[in-house]
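note to self — DONT lose this again. spent like an hour looking for the file last time. sequence + predicted structure for the chain T wanted, 323 res
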Amino acid sequence: MSTGHRRLRLGFAGTPKFAVPALDALEAAYGICAVFTQPDRPAGRGRSLHASPVKSRAAELRLPVHQPLSFKSPEALQILRDLSLDALVVVAYGLILPRAALESPRLGCINIHASLLPRWRGAAPIQRALLAGDAKTGISIMRMEEALDTGPVLATRELDVGARDTAQVLHDRLSQLGAELIVDTLGEFELGRVHETPQPPEGHTYAAKIDKAEALIDWRQDAVQIGRQIRAFNPWPVAETRFHGAQIRIWEAELCEPAQSVGEGAGDPAPGTVLAAAEDGIDVACGRGTLRILRLQLAGRKPLAAQEFIQGRKLDGERFVHA
């Protein structure tokens, strides 16, 4: 058990890997009275039940774990009330908290959200920020309300989005940033120095849950947008195309410089055409510009660098297609 100060009595609600650093940080700084996470789900080929990353980590920390199907049940609400919490910290929990649950802790429920609210409220803020080409993202600490991600903001911290950053890279950086910021914010709570800032009525955007169909590459699009798509869907669901009827997943790519228009004139190569295949990558014509594929994967195989993929294959003049 940790030896940090324990002036706040905290509970924790989270499910995926993104929430684990915050769980660790709060347990070290304050101690956690109880952890709430989603019920075990079937996964893998055998569809056996698997614990969430938060449940697995909570077990390692020897913390009590509760897995209600819903907080609308009287039993789940009573468990929460009996804990007499100062605050419930919520990170990518995945279950709706009704008003009775939100109002149970003395300070309410405090959420760690992976965007600079009010931009990208909703389920997939990291991927949506990449798809939109945002230059910055960050973490918002928010007091939760019944409406989705609309509550007053207690603290924010910005993060620059690098030109090569994938969703996985941003996920890991934001996860750590959120863990640091929640501890700092709770420290400010103890000192009475937290100021709640209502979100402005304008400027909000909605980060809809990712649909696998969004991963299909349409080579008629601009190379810049396809590049964003590849980065946003790494590591899931992974951008994909077709080559001689076979699925090809594209894990990494970069823009070719200088950008050039293709597919616009009668003599231009059709979008999806391989313009060159060499050790440094596979250059593919897009609706505007050219994209260089750096790492790709045939269905059922492991991902390969372009240099390995082209061995024994003649790709020049071949074409990747949408479906």
